[in-house]
Design brief:
This protein is an alpha/beta fold. The protein has helices at residues 23-34, 41-54, 62-71, 99-109, 112-126, 138-142, 156-167, 176-191, 212-225, and strands at residues 12-16, 37-40, 74-79, 82-87, 90-91, 131-135, 148-153, 203-206. Helix 2 (41-54) crosses helix 4 (99-109) and helix 7 (156-167) packs across helix 8 (176-191).
């Protein structure tokens, strides 16, 4: 049984799922409950996209974006404001949900050179556990030997509604239909990558009828019973 009092430095929890499946929020709740660090690996891809946009690069240029990624040092640090992501020493956390970054991360995340570099960094971060890692290929690619793996699913409509609710009060917020269209497009791209599918030993959790707290509670219960 794993509880907050019995968590070991080697505990690694993988939480994967498609876009807007709630994995980031759920991961933070689980990490807080168990006293672990948390890394949303999607932040790292967004950071590359943000840097590329700032440098006015073509985000579809695989060679150029890979060279950019090679020049960037990405660190996850604790602060009074929670986990923060630094790129070459600069805190870019608040810029990662900009609408341009959200759209730009799609081609960036598909670049093999960028993925190779970031997976290497993510594995290094995972060794400094205990940690909850959130993404699309944590259990299959980043830490396939994770202590326990989860994969969250929900219908495209449910996920689009969640993302729309998150963004509706932000500048240039898209309509629900636009959110759903982008989400379905991203699902199609991700479905072409074998590592984005659930790991064979992952616990599948359907969060269609669960909110983030309920989903996190189910995960924690399963971890404690493991």
């Amino acid at each position: 049984m794993v509880t907050r009092d019995t968590v070991t430095p080697h505990l690694t929890i993988a939480i994967d799922g498609p876009v807007a499946s709630g994995k980031s929020t759920v991961g933070r709740i689980v990490a807080q409950e168990l006293g672990c660090r948390v890394l949303d690996t999607g932040w790292m891809y967004r950071a590359i996209a943000y840097a590329g946009l700032n440098a006015q690069l073509d985000l579809n240029d695989q060679d150029e974006m890979t060279r950019l990624a090679e020049r960037l040092t990405i660190k996850l640090v604790e602060s009074k404001r929670g986990e923060r992501l630094l790129v070459n020493g600069n805190d870019v956390t608040d810029q990662l949900h900009d609408s341009r970054v959200e759209q730009g991360v799609v081609p960036v995340a598909a670049i093999r050179g960028v993925r190779r570099l970031l997976v290497h960094q993510q594995r290094s971060i995972a060794t400094d556990g205990p940690i909850v890692m959130v993404g699309r290929d944590i259990g299959t690619m980043v830490i396939p030997d994770a202590t326990i793996k989860f994969y969250l699913i929900a219908s495209p409509e449910t996920r689009a509604k969640r993302r729309y609710e998150e963004r509706k009060n932000t500048p240039d917020s898209p309509s629900y239909d636009d959110v759903l269209e982008r989400l379905v497009h991203r699902d199609k791209i991700d479905s072409q990558r074998a590592e984005s599918h659930p790991a064979d030993d992952a616990v599948i959790i359907d969060s269609d009828s669960l909110d983030a707290s309920e989903t996190a509670r189910r995960i924690i219960d399963l971890i404690e019973d493991a």
